[in-house]
Write a structure and sequence with these properties.
With 371 residues, the chain is an alpha/beta fold. Helix content is 35%, strand content 14%. The chain has helices at 17-30, 38-51, 63-72, 88-95, 140-150, 201-210, 232-242, 245-263, 297-306, 337-345, 357-369; strands at 55-59, 78-81, 99-102, 125-129, 153-157, 165-166, 169-170, 177-181, 194-198, 269-271, 278-279, 285-289, 346-349. The chain is globular.
Length: 371
């Protein structure tokens, strides 16, 4: 039996339990558990202020905002997206009866390659759904230029990009809409949860109708909506976590810097650098392992597990290889060489605010010694 302390790839940011109990007692007194209660309204206000956006709608998870964004904008036909993401990105397109069209990615960032987008546009294309992979901002300026030329909408999957800013501006202000995930594995979490960010009051109102079965008032249903509301308990939890997320990000940054310092001279190991002008959130620490390292990605993955260290091959396999999508013309591996390359090289190392120096050093030791 392995007696080394377990190190998982992530660990949730947890609020103080006594503070949470105090909020729970207040919720019990109010007897209002869901449907736009006190803490739900307070969390929407607090998040809008923290994130630097005007209009935000809370959701019960991170997938439903993607589905609802496509509904709210009445997207039809084809949506250009990336195969290098979590499956929810593409599933949201499928659930809306739309056709996902995959394009290749930029090797330096893992994000959708803007220069591959135009070739994928057809008369049926109505939107682009890029992903800020690992919280690294997409080339938003170039994507917007393309969208403007062809009259396309842009919905950013910003599940990884909580709090990320470029030159002081939130990445959530880009495009027509952005979505966030507040899953327990994320930098900021509400256990399960998510949000949809838009840029005007009328759209915010439509989103709020759609996430509440389409109800506009007690007797009026304006659209075939769905139940996506966040409850009071997770809203209260989220308010507490918001108070400590900046401290958690600073701790993550320190861990990232330790990894970089230790791994920078190891042949065959590449990692993502910080980008000038970007306020990163250090959501993940992916490394990309080439043949020069001398040990395959999968062998290192297994070796770490022998030391009770659990990384994650994120994103592997590509969405385009799953049975629901591999029959699409755009899923042909010849169309996605860079995405396949990164999927076969990537390994996300443990990254969470409470990971101590001993844990970081154990990870580094295994990678360095290869045994």
């Amino acid at each position: 039996m392995n007696e080394e302390k377990l190190i998982t790839v992530t660990s949730p940011l947890l609020p103080d339990l006594n503070d949470f109990k105090t909020m729970l007692e207040d919720i019990w007194k109010r007897k209002w558990l869901t449907n736009n209660g006190h803490y739900h309204e307070e969390l929407e206000k607090a998040l809008a202020n923290y994130l630097g956006v005007k209009y935000i709608s809370l959701f019960t998870n991170g997938t439903l905002p993607l589905i609802t964004a496509l509904q709210a904008m009445r997207i039809t036909g084809e949506v250009i997206t990336t195969p290098y993401s979590f499956v929810a990105t593409t599933h949201s397109i499928w659930w809306n009866g739309l056709k996902p069209v995959f394009v290749d990615i930029d090797e330096a960032t893992g994000n959708i390659d803007p220069e591959k987008i135009e070739a994928a546009i057809t008369p049926h294309t109505t939107a682009i759904m890029p992903v800020h992979v690992y919280g690294t901002p997409c080339n938003m300026k170039r994507i917007q230029e393309i969208a403007d030329i062809y009259g396309l909408k842009i919905i950013y999957d910003a599940a990884h990009a909580f709090g990320v800013r470029v030159n002081g501006e939130s990445v959530l202000k880009a495009g027509d809409m952005s979505t966030l995930s507040f899953h327990a594995t994320k930098v900021y979490n509400t256990i399960e949860g998510g949000a949809l960010i838009c840029h005007d009051e009328a759209t915010k109102k439509r989103i709020d109708y759609l996430k509440n079965f389409g109800f506009a008032d007690e007797t009026t249903v304006v659209a075939p909506g769905i139940n996506s509301k966040m409850d009071e308990i997770r809203s209260a939890y989220g308010l507490l976590n918001l108070k400590q997320v900046d401290c958690a990000i600073e701790k993550r940054k320190a861990i990232a810097n330790k990894y970089r310092a230790a791994l920078k001279d190891i042949a065959g190991i590449r990692f993502l650098p910080d980008i000038e002008g970007v306020r990163h959130n250090y959501a993940y620490f992916p490394i990309f392992i080439s043949e020069e390292y001398g040990v395959s990605r999968d062998d290192l993955y297994t070796l770490l597990q022998k030391h009770n260290i659990y990384g994650r091959r994120y994103f592997y396999p590509l969405i385009s290889t799953f049975s629901a999508y591999k029959g699409l013309d755009s899923a042909n591996p010849a169309n996605l060489p860079v995405a396949h390359k990164l999927a076969n090289q990537v390994l996300c190392l443990p990254m969470f605010a409470t990971l101590d120096d001993e844990g970081v050093n154990r990870v580094i030791e295994v990678i360095t010694n290869k045994k």
